[in-house]
Design a protein that fits this description.
alpha+beta, Arc Repressor Mutant, subunit A, Beta-Lactamase, six-stranded mixed β-sheet
Amino acid sequence: MRKMFMGVRLRRLRAERGMTQAALAQALDLSPSYLNQLEQNRRPLTVAVLLKIQHALGVDIQEFSEDESSRLVAGLREALADPAESITLPELQELAAQMPALARAVLVLHRRNAALADQVEALTLRLGDDRTELGVPQATAFEVVRDFFFAHGNYFDVLDRAAEAMAAKLGTAVGPDWLARRLQREHGVSIRLETMTDSKRRFDSAARVLHLPAGLQPAQLAFQLATQLALAEQEEAITRLTDAPTLQQDEAARKLARIGLANYFAGALLLPYGEFLRAAEELRFDIDLLAQRYGVGFETVCHRLSTLQRPGTPGVPFFFVRVDRAGNISKRQSATHFHFSRTGGTCPLWNVYEAFGQPGRIMPQLARMPDGRVYLWIARTVTGHSTGFGSPQKTFSIGLGCDVRHAGRMVYAKGLDLQDPDVATPIGMGCKICERESCAQRAFPFVGRPLAVDENQSRFAPYGFSP
């Protein structure tokens, strides 16, 4: 752990609770002079002091984590990529570390500005079209829900423990037969398997009939049944979680979050926390072996691995992503600080795109971000079942990544030199906010610096920057 100076945050914490410096020092069992040095950034904040803060004041120490600061810095670099005057990385790091509330306010303003820009573009495109009513897009519900899951560290304790308790009570693997019987016995829901091309699950609440596609694999069938069971038996917990103000402002986002939480419960029921984490550690996070042991798919295992952040017994903090051939990110779940731009695309050197060229093969990659952080990524394609002749088959690339300091626990680190900085592939958060000057794959210029254009020189990289 690098040294953390959090003086401003400590002073703010004390002010919020109306405590004097002496009172806070007493509560933390520290000398007033030592606390004064912490608040003046003359002493770094240690793990021992962080634990005292958590115990004495009930503060989530995640607020002081390097991961949270790194996420804020990444967001600030995107938000301030084209400022009136140059802002250095150390300045952004200082802002994120010392004044996170202000940093988050800057990000909110940036998102509002981006939404307004989208609205202006939509209005421009629609002006003069008198055949339909003018529509102005709002902030997407998907982004609201994604931020909601990130704010919870991609872990929901009440749902996770309820699912684990249910699985433990059963004593055997949760399968579709048991789930179907429980839905019928406890909730009067009958199951109907039929040919379906438009839905994976459709519940008729009036008739109490759950319609499911006949071609689902047992694990897929169990997941859909468990999702319906969550909506029936975890209604109170799901409603309480979705009462968050950010979700109440957008009905579509609230409904999406309810589905996401029901899916979360289903995954936790099929892959119970403690048992699954022990199996993952035992098998060194070999996803294929975990999929075989639990009878589920590659994507399901990856998604569950990204949720194992129970306080006291956390797993590896993974970042999970699903992309299509066009580069669209349709799923993004994170228990860590990895960040890609919301605008300007992602990085073509990232192995999630290379995986499309070698379908079905797991591809490991050490990747280094511009801030120097190195990650171990694995990527593999998955293909959905066909819904009939002539219908397009869905193919995605699944990526699962973690900080390189956890890589030694994973089977995918075999043969990789984790200590050699030159082994890692340099990638970025997206061309428009990536400052790597010599990248031959750059699609757009970096907006943070002016272009250097010289008609007498042709570069290997498509754009050059002025100092």
